[in-house]
Amino acid sequence: MSADQIKDSTWREELNERFGWMGGRHGLSFECGGGWRFLLDDLLQRMAATLSDEERQDFQVTQIKEKLGTLRCHVFNGNDRVDALIDSAENASEITCDVCGGRGRLRNSGWLTVRCDEHVDYRG
Ligand SMILES: [Zn+2]
User: Structure pTM?
Assistant: First the structure.
C-alpha cells in the first residue's frame, strides 16, 4: 500500500455511505487507523447481513475505536450473532497492521499498536 493510500481517509466516508445507518443520527465514527478499513468493511457487512429488518430498527453501533492497540466495537441492541462477529473482528485486529492492513503484531513502544515490520515507527 502506497503512502498516498495510507493517508487517504476517504474510507471513512465510503463506509458511512454504505453503513452509516448503523451509527444513528450522526453516522459512524472510526477512531482507529486506516489499515483496519477492510476488517471494518467486512464486520459491518456481516452485521448488516445477520440483522433482520426488525432488528435493524433498534440496532446501533455506538463506538468503533482502537484501545490498548486493538479494535473495540460497541453496539446497542446487538445479539449473539453480532457479538460473535465483533469478537472475530477484534481478534483479527490483533494481527492486522493498523497502518497498511498487512500482517502485524502487538508492539509496545510506550503505547500499544498492532504493526507490521515496515510500520513499527509510523506516525500518521
Ligand atoms: Zn503496515
Answer: 0.92
